Amino acid sequence: MDEEQLLDYEEENEDTNRVVEKTDGAGDGGKKVKGTYASIHSSGFRDFLLKPELLRAIVDCGFEHPSEVQHECIPQAILGMDIVCQAKSGMGKTAVFVLATLQQLEPVDGEVKVLVMCHTRELAFQISKEYERFSKYMQTVKVSVFFGGMPIKKDEETLKTNCPHVVVGTPGRTLALARSGALNLKNVKFFVLDECDKMIGDLDMRRDVQEIVRMTPKEKQVMMFSATLPKELRAVCKKFMQDPMEVYVDDEAKLTLHGLQQHYVKLREADKNRKLLELLDHLEFNQKRILVATDLFGRGMDIERVNIVFNYDMPEDSDSYLHRVARAGRFGTKGLAITFVSNDDDAKVLNTVQDRFDISVTELPENIEVSSYIEGRAE
């Protein structure tokens, strides 16, 4: 499907769009404060005039100040403006659309009002839990998550007997439910794509997304988010929107997390296991358990207190690298990313990463100060 076949909502003149160049606050008088939720904004969530039920939930979650992307986007999002947003990983993009949709939501029994889509079931499940967390004092709000690999009859039964107001799902299962008539999208007021570059960049997913969009009303709020959003995909995203607010990181050097140390280890493929076990013995890490995962967990997943990421195999490209290493060092905390380099192709990808994001990934030193990658440790 070529881009001309995409829905085009008669975009307004692009000059009316608001384009915001993100900064990390360092060059304009702002202060960098490592290890805190907010790096430059002292205003609280109360300034957004959110519902009391939402503010109570925010306090319960332990959030005090909005991050930069939340400060930039939430005021516009709660007014119903379409938003396409690129911001570094781990800075709370999910909370932007969760809070904005819950703030505006007026639940009606039997009507789906919010539709959120993402590319994996794991991320869909995580987002649904965020909705449950923030809506805990909004007793009438019902949230459901739908994805493949589970019996579709169960989903159809949920929609029939306990229809949710908020649906989070993957494109394939969402489309199957909509096609069968089990999921009625005619009352959707809020449409969100998380990791939108993956959803729009993959042509098969894009077809599913487009068909789903066609089943929703033309008049709705559309929001799209990702840490990586190439210029060629921005125009495609905007075809789903009407006069959106645009928040981009035009300087890709600002996409990297400032508290994250990044190193590489050069070794033979056959030596990877031995080196990994040696490093796990030598390094200190917050988490008691170790997660071994494919790229399935490389995007969007927020796993609390992870401070070390190992790229056992080199990511296929610089986008994947950025998303993977951002599982550590989230919300301005410290972290460590170690990448194994075992051949020339690996070295090429690593060089691309360094050139694109203007960072220096150095060889892993023999000794690393624990305080450099774990919060609260003395030098």
From TrEMBL:
Start and end residues of each Helicase ATP-binding domain: 74-247
Keyword Coiled coil belongs to the record: no
Domain of life: Eukaryota
Keywords: ATP-binding, Helicase, Hydrolase, Nucleotide-binding
Presence of keyword Nucleotide-binding: yes
Annotated segments matching region Disordered: 1-27
Protein name as catalogued: RNA helicase
Lineage: Eukaryota, Metazoa, Ecdysozoa, Nematoda, Chromadorea
